[in-house]
Input
Amino acid sequence: MSVSEQATALMVKIVYQLRPPATTTMAPCFRCSSPSPGGQVCASCLDDDLGGLIRNRGAAMRWLTSVKQATKDEQTVLSYARKVEAESGLKSR
Ligand SMILES: [Zn+2]
Output
């Protein structure tokens, strides 16, 4: 596997590890023992791997910060969507 392919595979794993705690069972990361979905290696440990792989930890960390922010924003958007659903459910039915 090329470095690009490995980096892509790692980023997919990291995004998967960032899913909201409510949708999964949290258990200690087996590398740093901070809470991680399914007790798999957590997003920040995987991001260390990514930084090492591409030989640029700064870029890997910046990407992780952006993804975390995007995940948060996505949840905010969905919470407003549910609010609209709840309100329209009350008014139209
Ligand atoms: Zn960890």
User: Anything to note?
Assistant: The chain has one domain: 3-92. DSSP finds three helices and two strands in the chain.
